[in-house]
Each structure stands twice: as C-alpha cells, then as structure tokens.
C-alpha cells in the first residue's frame, strides 16, 4: 500500500492523492505494480527498492550519485509471527528511507510500528524536512527497541521465577528463545549504530542546526538500547549457566544415590551366591545365617556411605 503525505502551511500533515514537491511517500508491503510505480513513475533506484524489501538486509547507507539519491536502511524490532510457544520471540526487519530530489520515500516489506506512528500524527512531522523526518524515524525505532528489551527482561524474570519452583525443559527453552531474540537485537543495534555514525559525518545527508538536539537524542537512545541489550544478554547467559550448574549438581546427587543403592543391593547377591555353591564345609550352613549376614552387611554399608563425606 502506498500513501502520500504532505505538511501544509499550518504545519498539519495530510494525505494527498499524488506526489508533490516536499511530500513523503510511504510504501508498506507494496505489490509488484506498486514497486514498478516507485521505480518508473517516482524514479526510485530499482536496487534501492529491492534492498528495502529484502527481509535479510542489514542496516547500512548507500548513495546513487547519478540520480542523486541516498538510501538509509535501518533495522526495527518486530514479533516473530512463526512463534509456536507461549513466550513471544522477536526478530528484526529492515525499513528503507530514500532521500531524493523533491521528496522522501519510506519502503517497508511489512506494516510496522515506527512508520505507523509517524503516519498517525502522534509525532509532529514536517515532510519538507527530509533529514528531520529520517531522524524522527530512527528515534522511533530506538524507542521501540528499548520497549521490546524491557518486555524481554520482564519475560526473563517471570521465566526465572518459574525455574526456581520447577526446573522443566519448557522454562529452559523459553530462556533460550529470549536469548535468541537478544542476539538478533544486538546484531541489528550495532548495525544501526554504525549507520547513525555515517549520518553524523554529514557527507551523504546534510545536517541542519535545528536538528542538532534531535540527532543527539537519537544517539543517546541508540546507545541506551545497545547497553540494555548487552546487559540483558549477559544476565540471561549467566542465569542459564547458573541453572545448568544446578541441574548438573542435581544429576550428580541422583547418581550418588543410585550408586549407593546398587552397592547395597549387590551384597545379598554375593552372600547367597557364596552359600549357593555346591561345596561342603561352608561356615554356619543354616538357612537363617545368610539372611542375617546379608542384612547386617547391608546396614553396615549403608551407614558407612551415609556418614562418608564423599557421598554427602
């Protein structure tokens, strides 16, 4: 779907039927016909359109000097629709921003929160200020990352609380899924931060004095998101290692108990095997003696292991 916006004289952004100078063209999950319209009618470089719609594309900045267009691709967080467990998992998808003569174009393969928030008007947008619109989109993406990271931290704490009560495979798998989401976030945030550093240099995208505070806010938000992702990932890894050690210790305790039971239960077999031999002159060849001897030896061995430091 393609939607065209333009900021009027009174500072209000409204939809318009056709592209004009100073407009913002938003393409969300465009069809093949809409992609052709972007390339042929609007003049967007075809490689830029394909790159923005590639779900595996990572964040970067590119320029086409011939057509004087700049492409900025940024990764934003989204829920994985293929999640089968009760714990939501997250992924990252690209959104492309093309700065060209006369207008700015955003291209996304799926409907997403950052672009939707700008389209809704909750954030004041001036479509004639292309650099500022790009920075507002990056700011919205960084805030979305922080929101998802806090949600992951809350889910991790809930799963950890359940692990203290019962260490089941389900909770451990949930922790692994959250850790997987953090890995995706960490990779995308580092790529977004590199792209932001390229924007800061001002070689491809012009800077304006009125956008200085906004640029600083974007930098601070992304650094905070990177730090949060790093901390949560480390905490999650340490938690997994801690519970793995607990499970290993529990397994060792179970093996010790089974070893003691096996040794104690093997004593009657040895005693009755000895008295079952077809030989003469066995000591105390009476029916009750092997039974009493087995019971005494079993109790003695059990008491030894019970008071032994090795098996405590």
Automatic annotation (TrEMBL):
<protein>
    <submittedName>
        <fullName>Magnesium transporter</fullName>
    </submittedName>
</protein>
<comment type="similarity">
    <text>Belongs to the CorA metal ion transporter (MIT) (TC 1.A.35) family.</text>
</comment>
<dbReference type="Pfam" id="PF01544">
    <property type="entry name" value="CorA"/>
</dbReference>
<dbReference type="InterPro" id="IPR045861">
    <property type="entry name" value="CorA_cytoplasmic_dom"/>
</dbReference>
<feature type="transmembrane region" description="Helical">
    <location>
        <begin position="287"/>
        <end position="305"/>
    </location>
</feature>
<dbReference type="GO" id="GO:0016020">
    <property type="term" value="C:membrane"/>
</dbReference>
<dbReference type="GO" id="GO:0046873">
    <property type="term" value="F:metal ion transmembrane transporter activity"/>
</dbReference>
<keyword id="KW-0472">Membrane</keyword>
<feature type="transmembrane region" description="Helical">
    <location>
        <begin position="258"/>
        <end position="275"/>
    </location>
</feature>
<keyword id="KW-1133">Transmembrane helix</keyword>
<keyword id="KW-0812">Transmembrane</keyword>
<dbReference type="InterPro" id="IPR002523">
    <property type="entry name" value="MgTranspt_CorA/ZnTranspt_ZntB"/>
</dbReference>
<dbReference type="InterPro" id="IPR047199">
    <property type="entry name" value="CorA-like"/>
</dbReference>
<dbReference type="InterPro" id="IPR045863">
    <property type="entry name" value="CorA_TM1_TM2"/>
</dbReference>
